[in-house]
Amino acid sequence: MKILHVFNRHRGGGGSDNAWDSTIALSRRRGLSVDCFERDSRALPPGIRGRLTAFANGLYAPGALRSFAARLDRDRPDIVHTHELYPLIGPWIFELCARAGIPVVHSCYDFRITCAVATHHDGRTLCTRCTDRGAHHALLRDCRNNPLESAAFALRHALAARRDFYRRHVSRFIVLTPFSRDWLHERAHIPLDRISINECVIPAAPRPVDPAKGGYFAFAGRFVPEKGLDILLEAARMAQVPVHVAGPAGCDPAPLVRQGVPATITRDADMLAQVYRGARALVVPSLWFETFAIVAAEAMAHGVPVIASRIGALTDTVREGETGLHFRPGDAADLARQLRRMWDDPQLCRALGKAAYADVQSRFDEDAHFDRLMQVYRTVARPSRRSA
């Protein structure tokens, strides 16, 4: 079985990039014939030229489409597995796959199919206007905080919706949680029998830590409004507990340093692991729905419990009272109460951390992930290919 993975790397990396890299690496280790068709947003030129290039290619990327068509003709994969496609590839490739008679599997790491900016958060609050009233609302609300970018995102989303690229051409959708499955079904009208759940591969650390010995609460993620870092910092001041923040390369730590908050800016997995392992708990204070929150599972893989917003897929990834605690999204006082509870109760902290480690071992195991992935591939593979 030959699988062609297609993805557009994000400029700042992130959990979805890590997730598809992990799936591709696992597939190769397990003997699948895997190739990649890749574009990288880091290659975009700086300034207005880069924005215009992203704008044009987000609507239609002729160079990428020609290269992709040539790849299909040359390699004839059994399945095309797509991930992020914007801005340098685009969902027009689905039509090329349909003409070639090659089935498509698409992994959903965010809300790209139902939201122009993929988060259902406009920088101020949760928003479903693109789904409910049309993509032009991304421009009206200036969801990218830049009129040109907001217009570009609105136009490409409207085009994808008008041509119904995803629903018409994707044979099977892979999501990470039951929440995302239900969202895709209810909001994008994808039949449930075309949606499969396959959680990320998260390897458990050889030995878990004792989180009750942790010296701070950790945050790991991009410094963007929907991640809720400001809520955590306010709650930490209220609870009088220390916080350590880790962000991807490119994030500016200066505002945090001025506030006296330790910050680690890294893409290095070992350094991030050290941040997790020194924590009493990881805090995921997201204000958007999230589709998985890979950092939560990564912390749990070290035996560190998680305190997360009670929103979206975080209620799937973090099990209330079992592997972590929840609080009301955006409510700093409620988060402060949970921070203080975890800080003052080492027995609770240890119990949640122990259960979190066991949960990762059983739920995010690579054998289980690969078995679920192969079931999807077998389901969509053409009979003639399966019998060849």
From TrEMBL:
Keywords in alphabetical order: Transferase
Domain of life: Bacteria
Glycosyl transferase family domain location: 213-358
Limits of the Glycosyltransferase subfamily 4-like N-terminal domain: 30-197
Matches recorded under Gene3D superfamilies: Glycogen Phosphorylase B (3.40.50.2000)
UniProt name for this protein: Putative transferase
Example GO molecular function: glycosyltransferase activity
Provenance organism: Sphingobium cloacae
Xref: CDD domains: GT4_PimA-like
Keyword set includes Transmembrane: no
